[in-house]
Structures are given as C-alpha cells and as structure tokens.
Amino acid sequence: MRVVVIGAGGREHALAWRLASSPAVETLSVWPGNGGTALAGWTLESPALAGAADVAAQAAALAAIAPDLVVIGPEAPLVAGLADALRARGLAVFGPGADGARLEGSKLFAKAFCERHGLPTARAWAVATPAELSAALAEAGERVVLKADGLAAGKGVLLLDSRAEAEAAG
Fold this sequence. Notes:
Layout: E1 2-7, H1 10-20, E2 27-32, H2 35-39, H3 47-50, H4 55-65, E3 69-72, H5 75-80, H6 82-88, E4 93-94, H7 98-105, H8 107-116, H9 130-140, E5 144-147, E6 157-160, H10 163-169
Parallel strand pairs: 1-2, 1-3, 3-4
Antiparallel strand pairs: 5-6
Helix pairs in contact: 7-8
C-alpha cells in the first residue's frame, strides 16, 4: 500500500512512524513533512504539491501521485475540504470531510451542535464586542474560559480567574 500523510507537525510524524511499522505499507510519504520525517526518508518532495496553494490544486497533485491512502492530520486542510476533494477523485482518505471538521473548526458550531443534540456542555455566550463580553461575564461569574472561534492550532483558549482578567483578555 502507498500512503501519503499530509502535515508537518508532531501528530503527523507520529502517524507516519506508526504507519511505517505496518507490513501493509510499501511506501510512505509525508507532505510537506518536517526535519524528522526528512531524516526518516519519508518527506515527499513534490514540485506539484509544493506549488499547490488551494484544495483543488492539492487534490489534483495528490491524485497524480495516486496513493492508496491519504491520511490528513492538520485541521486546516480538513476544514477547507481536502478530504472531500480527494474522495471526489476516488482516493481513500483518513480524515473527516468539511462538514465533520466543522466541529473542530468552529467553537460556535460545536457548541450549537451539542445543544441541538442534547449533549452535555457548559454554558456559553458568543460575544463580539467589549460590551457583550462584560454582559456575559456578569452572568457567568468569576472563573471563565475564553475561546476564540475558528481554528487556533491548539491555542486560543484562556483560563481566567477573575472578571478583570477576562475583560482585559477580551
């Protein structure tokens, strides 16, 4: 089996490392990869992929490589619909489509999904202005968690101990 792992972080390196140990995997490539994947000989050097700035171009470049499986690690290409574009070209993909990736891509969408389906979740307020933040903090109490909507690459969450900290951070 020919496998391409999409991504450059530690998660993708770990996925590649585990896949490399499978006897079913004949060739393994990581794009764009990192220093560790390059040392392991897994980094995919592809001018077509390197020049692919959007999902359609990436899907076309990957289809030309014709892997048996594409594993997409990072959230951004999943939210952008890369898995959907690859599936539309007949490629096997490990990773959710754009609809499923919205759960990770938008805190507001995820919160609404939980509420709509009766899944336990903490109370939340969506705010866009300092006045809205102040009103939400008055209702929420002292200790709050502030989250930015959208992709934050594992960041974008602040654990705050007081209303003053939350207002200063907002």
